[in-house]
Here is the input.
Amino acid sequence: MPRSVFLSKQLIKNDTDRLTLISGPCLLENEKLVRQVAKSLIKYAKKEKFNLIFKCSFDKANRSSDQTIRNKISFDKSLDILKNLKNDLKISITSDVHETSQVDKLAELLDVIQIPAFLCRQTDLIKSAAQTKKVVNVKKGQFLSHKEVSNIIKKIENENNKKILITERGNSFGYNYLINDFKGIHFMKEFGYPIIFDSTHSVQLPGGLGKKSGGAREFVVPLSKAASSLRIAGFFIETHPNPEKALSDGPNMIYLHKMPKLLNTINKINKAAK
Here is the structure.
């Protein structure tokens, strides 16, 4: 049975003309950056009539090497920046949680708690997030079949939480590459919960640069177009004013100034696919 998720006054569901955009820079590099990106995204989302959830990570715990940057700002300072951003701009906020010890404090701030793909089978983490009664967005692991997502859903439901989003970001067969199986998105829609397509992590090349991941930004648009035709709930798209200088995931992030055209294209295809 199709399910909808309510977030503030936003309705998130599959088969909708009002898509949801989860977007922001990969890493909280500094306050100026997140404010610049957030203000631009608010304008773009309003024009294209997207729901908007601002996303920014305070820590990148999953690194190819311990010689790459995890964070620039402390945990507490990061939360202060995001809290001020949320209050000043009146937007919904999401970020990823890595440990059960972080959940309660993050739940005081976040509107959506995100479970990273590599942690999507961590039962204690998922249950802790579900117990907050917040919306939980689970990034489907690159190592999971789409069928196995039902087990993750049941873990959350068993904590009396049915505010669930599932994000597709491709499957890995090794060799620093990800493959998107769009049949799997159709299959996951049958679970009933809103499906989000992660356009930018789907083109990531895990460990492709040796000590860090690479990316193939040129495929973000065609993959987004393909996903748009499936009438899913929304898109996860990381963006940055200058991805070439970003501290994390630059090779797969979209240039901020190119977001309006991409959102317009997604919207047109989604509506045409009714």
In short: The radius of gyration is 17 Å.
